[in-house]
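FAQ: What does a multi-protein file look like?

Like this. Sequence, then tokens, then the next protein.
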Amino acid sequence: MSPVPAYRPLPQQSLAATGCHVLEAFNPPEVTLASPALHVMTDLVRVPAATIPPDATLLDVHQSMLVRGVRLLLVAEDDGRIQGLITSTDLQGERPLVLTLETGVKRDDLRVREVMTNLERLDALSIEQVQHATVGEVVATLKASGRTHTLVVGPDPQGGRQLVGIFSAAQIARQLGVAIQTHEIARTFAEIESLIAHL
């Protein structure tokens, strides 16, 4: 067994002798509809993607969302290949209720693969588009798709595509200064449009 190294305490200094001031906190740039879209994108190069396996239960999903403070989880296999996504809206939607009635399985015990939005039904923006887009264009895209999130893909080293970012209507609304009180997409966009009307 190798010996544990002896760590020495670092020298400290008296604040009374030197004085001390609080630094101004970094304030991110104010976001408007004309701001670059990248200002409101969750950059998955800097923030790890929140994932869940397809055989997890809806209770697992709910707990994972609470712990991570997110409303969307990517459904991924062990090798990282994305199978789809599941959102808080999906959890509260009609599909879990229908499945519970059809199968007799309790809602919390339903599997992610039964409720998620499959990859075949997902569209994504390219990072090349996003780099030249505005926040307003992303809001219009989300509204047209009828979803509260959209994915952003970019090139991977093998010549394919990989997930590089996520746009969230709720996140955009927060950065625009709109208070969102509900997960409902219609309310989210109504709040954003109300803000636009007063700009």
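And here is the next protein:
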Amino acid sequence: MREYHNPRLVISKCIEFESCRYNGQIISSAFVKKLKENVDFIPVCPEVEIDLGIPRDPIRLVEIDGKVNLIQPSTDKNLTLDMENFSKSFLKSLSDVDGFILKNKSPSCGVKAVRIYPYPENSRPKNDGKGLFASSVFKNCPFTPVEDEGRLRNLQIREDFLTAIYTLADFRNLKKRLKIKELIDFHSQNKFLLMAYNQKLMREMGNLIGNQKDYSKDYLFRDYNKLLAQALSNPPEAPSNINMLMHAFGYFSDKLNHQEKVFFLDAIEKYRNGIMPLLVCLNLLKSWVIRFEEDYLANQTFFQAYPPDLMPVTTISR
């Protein structure tokens, strides 16, 4: 069993932490509740931090002269500068954060599909905005995994998010020691995973390690970190994962009987068509890794990128 290091995640405080929504309620999330045992959370409510009370009159995004503003219609307050200043200060204070889970569709924290109104009063909104705090997150942390609790109900999005935050947490842990051998081992153990995500960046990371004598340790680990985060920021499509599944399958194809091969290939087709999660195919391969004692594959994080008890059991939705 591989060792996992707890990711450090910023989370909207109203999700399972405190009753601080505008209506004084708390958001329930079974996934976040489960994550509490495996994640070091940094809860924050940007709206409370800019001195809006609990409960409080609703706020909304309003487009004024081509710029999105944060407005509280009942008081006619423009809270844009307050939110921008808080966001800048808060994000600057963070260090070594592996990801964000934010409240969906919130005018402060929503990562997509947030309503933007043409007027402060009731009017027909567009649904293509980002919350003001979330916009600052994307601007200041461009390759850090960011999701909302609504999107994380989607099985594939959840798997991709968990893979990214646990890979980044592992690297953050080894970065503390600046040991070249640990970096080489990390790159080797993540080879299949990085090949699925971005082969071009994986080769750049390999070249960086190969030319390690040309760089200081600080530079080497800092640049590897940037390339790693960039690679993980674009989750692989099914064809890339299937290429890696078939590559791993090649280690066992001459050791399996016909029925086992057919069953595995059928599972891959179901994954390709979106009716079976990736983890089913991974579990089949892991069973053969154990059965045939394939040590090289046993060390590949591709087959168990995050703790098994966090593996989603819900159905896929697209």
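Q: Is there any per-entry metadata?
A: Some entries carry free-text notes. For the entry above: Residues 154-318 form one domain.
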